[in-house]
Amino acid sequence: MMRYYTLIPLLAIAFLPACGSRDAGKVAASDPGAALVQNVCKDCHGPNGQGQGRFPRLAGRSAEELATLLRQYKSGHKSVNMSDTMRPFAQALSDQQIDQVAAYLAAQ
Ligand code: HEC
């Protein structure tokens, strides 16, 4: 099965961890936003973006606000409270992925 996925490296990166967390019942492997959160964001922001410690809650916030913040991080724009921590993660996202991850988090 792994070998099958390596045909499409980007999808493999997006979907393999999502497979592992499917028992959580919430992650649809077909949702690229969900896969991104499980892959990239959860170690800091929590499995569904609920936030923990110094990592702010993302779940349930407006998709527009989240996407705007991510684009600001991506472009290097800094407003109050923005550290350098997020920039590499935002820069790794395409415009479409920003919209997908924001939509997923907003729906949590
Ligand atoms: C290495 C830890 C880390 C990872 C991984 C990470 N973040 Fe963050 N994120 C932070 C920290 C810390 C902040 C707090 C503000 C700051 O430091 O800029 C933050 C802030 C944010 C904010 C702004 C929230 C606010 O209220 O201002 C958004 C949106 C965000 N992260 C989205 C994401 C998304 C989406 C991902 C996954 C693609 C992600 N983050 C991955 C550490 C992380």
If you had to describe this structure to a student in words, what would you say it looks like?
By secondary structure, the protein is an all-alpha fold. The protein has a single domain (2-106), classed as Cytochrome c-like domain (Cytochrome Bc1 Complex, Chain D, domain 2, Orthogonal Bundle), CATH 1.10.760.10. The protein is 56% helix and 0% strand. The chain has six helices and no strands. It has helices at 2-5, 9-20, 32-45, 63-75, 87-91, 95-106. The protein binds heme C. Heme C is lined by residues 36, 40-41, 43-45, 54-56, 58, 66, 69-70, 81-83, 85-86, 89, 101.
Structure keywords:
108 residues, mainly alpha, Cytochrome Bc1 Complex, Chain D, domain 2, 56% helix
CATH topology: Cytochrome Bc1 Complex, Chain D, domain 2
CATH architecture: Orthogonal Bundle
Q: Which ranges are low-confidence, i.e. pLDDT below 50, for 5 or more consecutive residues?
A: 7-25
The H-level CATH homologous superfamily, spelled out, is: Cytochrome c-like domain
Mean pLDDT: 83
Radius of gyration using CA atoms only: 14 Å
Name of the CATH class? Mainly Alpha
What is the strand tally?
A: 0
What is the count of structural domains?
1
Protein name: C-type cytochrome
GO molecular function: electron transfer activity; heme binding; metal ion binding
Signal peptide: 1-20
Keywords: Electron transport, Heme, Iron, Metal-binding, Signal, Transport
